[in-house]
Design the sequence.
């Protein structure tokens, strides 16, 4: 998933803010309004962004407009250390057993226990989402009619692991009200080049003309329509059959360049590339078509499932293209044939999650240059921006400042205020969080994640008509305070989850916009009556609570009437 910027010693000037470009240069902007029906233009900040793309944003979660059902939308200042609304996530990589399972061939109970450990890690660090790799190499962590079981489960490709890993992951994440985004690698077939090592009924062996070798790996040829259709069917099967919250792609489209090797797709270009002047444009067209079609098909299947991509952090350098960033590293537009800026402007994605894996002040790829560049681009279409963070560089020692990551989040707050919304951060990868090298992650939690956070809502996704719940009581019991909550919505309008807020003492009002008052969230158990235990309540202290209801895309109701402990 990871590729460093090349030529890191290149002396390229860096600026903390990118420049605005006139509307005539914003290629693809107008055509992007169709999918979202210009929903985000309803707010002045984003409407202004279509004219001059340097905008003054409010809280990242509310700058693009609060959902109609949200009765407490007054924003917190974006410079606040803690935000009530932000995505906080980690990648859980399965390819070559990077994170989970820790090794192939573990029995089902051990695999389950390991995954529960990663959910514990997420909760302990107040994360609210996990991006789990479920299709690392044209194989599956779920029973698929299109591709075999992954070898990273049992050690043998095609062997049933004895349980449903994706079903288990979704169920357990949702028990903790953590979003689970299923992470798919589209084109990679194998980490080696011999098709004979794949199971006999593998699609790459059934259709050898779909596959070529490059850089020591096998890939589906992105230029073959039948191969693209196969990949999409394999992904959509998971969307249709599992209650996932998102479909997530990483940075691997066409493979990263390998010195001395040429992509072996000249024949495919000759067959399918008549409408393109160059093979490079044709390759980008293949990826564009894949992304756009995937977006449309996900929304046609389940409109609430989010679609996001985590590309390499540099689209193009300004020395190559005046619309690019003031950087000097590798360029995804030219190296992976991934026109990531276009995907955002066209509105094909719900979120963009660029891997900005460099430190503040690195000349060739300055974090302080790239975050505002992406924020300006994302603000134009209302696409949410999550920043990919190189937590592994704290472990490896590339990041020498223990406060590097917490400084990143400080900068994201400033960019949200002055440029465009940054809606959250994602850490690569899970295994580096408990290691806590140099205390870098602990510092992030201490400085920015003191309290839980709700997921930012996406105004263009379909809202559900949930209603304000009734907080029946808040009763002191052994181990904390027990809340009983009544969901009074109709059977078709039940809440997905609930948010709990409290203040010390007896109060007539609880400010649900103050992040410090958010105690936690919990998933609905179904039915009308819910119960939740506040284990953080201190013995001998009275509290006043209110509860709100949330739909599955995190739109929030007004708060209940307050209840004081008794």
Sequence:
């Amino acid at each position: 998933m990871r590729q460093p910027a090349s030529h890191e010693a290149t002396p390229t000037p860096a600026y903390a803010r990118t420049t605005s470009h006139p509307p005539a240069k914003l290629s693809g902007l107008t055509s992007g309004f169709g999918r979202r029906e210009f929903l985000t233009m309803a707010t002045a900040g984003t409407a202004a962004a279509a004219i001059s793309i340097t905008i003054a944003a409010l809280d990242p979660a509310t700058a693009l407009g609060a959902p109609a059902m949200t009765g407490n939308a007054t924003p917190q200042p974006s410079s606040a250390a803690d935000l009530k609304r932000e995505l906080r996530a980690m990648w859980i990589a399965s390819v070559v057993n990077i994170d989970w399972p820790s090794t192939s061939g573990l029995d089902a109970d051990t695999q389950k226990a390991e995954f529960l450990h990663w959910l514990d890690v997420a909760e302990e660090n107040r994360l609210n989402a996990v991006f789990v790799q479920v299709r690392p190499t044209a194989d599956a962590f779920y029973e698929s009619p299109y591709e075999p079981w992954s070898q990273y489960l049992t050690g043998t490709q095609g062997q049933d692991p004895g349980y449903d890993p994706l079903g288990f992951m979704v169920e357990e994440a949702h028990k903790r009200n953590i979003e689970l985004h299923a992470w798919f690698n589209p084109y990679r077939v194998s980490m080696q080049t011999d098709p004979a090592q794949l199971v006999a009924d593998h699609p790459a062996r059934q259709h050898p003309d779909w596959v070529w070798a490059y850089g020591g790996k096998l890939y589906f040829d992105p230029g073959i329509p039948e191969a693209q259709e196969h990949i999409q069917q394999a992904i959509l099967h998971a969307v249709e059959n599992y209650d996932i919250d998102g479909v997530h792609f990483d940075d691997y489209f066409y493979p990263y360049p390998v010195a001395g090797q040429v992509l072996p797709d000249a024949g495919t270009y000759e067959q399918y590339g008549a409408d393109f002047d160059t093979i490079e444009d044709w390759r980008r067209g293949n990826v564009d078509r894949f992304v756009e079609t995937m977006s449309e098909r996900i929304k046609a299947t389940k409109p609430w499932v989010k679609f996001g991509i985590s590309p390499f952090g540099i689209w193009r350098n300004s020395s190559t293209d005046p619309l690019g960033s003031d950087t000097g590293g590798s360029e995804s537009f030219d190296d992976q044939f991934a026109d990531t800026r276009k995907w955002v402007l066209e509105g094909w994605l719900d979120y963009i999650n660029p891997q900005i894996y460099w430190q503040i002040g690195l000349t060739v790829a300055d974090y302080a240059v790239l975050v505002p560049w992406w924020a300006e681009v994302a603000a134009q279409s209302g696409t949410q921006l999550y920043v990919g963070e190189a937590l592994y560089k704290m472990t490896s020692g590339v990041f020498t400042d223990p406060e590097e990551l917490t400084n990143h989040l400080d900068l994201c707050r400033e960019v949200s205020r002055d440029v465009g919304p940054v809606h959250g951060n994602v850490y690569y990868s899970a295994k580096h969080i408990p290691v806590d090298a140099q205390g870098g992650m602990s510092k992030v939690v201490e400085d920015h994640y003191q309290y839980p956070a709700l997921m930012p809502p996406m105004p263009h996704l379909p809202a559900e008509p949930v209603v304000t719940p009734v907080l029946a009581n808040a009763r002191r019991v052994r181990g904390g305070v027990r809340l009983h909550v009544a969901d009074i919505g109709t059977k078709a309008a039940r809440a997905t989850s609930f948010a709990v807020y409290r203040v010390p003492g007896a109060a007539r009002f609880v400010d649900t916009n103050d992040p410090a008052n958010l105690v936690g969230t919990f998933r609905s158990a179904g039915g009308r009556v819910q119960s939740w235990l506040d284990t953080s309540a201190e013995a001998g202290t009275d509290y006043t609570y209110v509860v709100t209801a949330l739909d599955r895309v995190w739109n929030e109701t007004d708060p209940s009437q307050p209840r004081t402990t008794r």
Summary: Residues 134 and 141 are 5 Å apart (CA to CA). The longest helix spans residues 279-301.
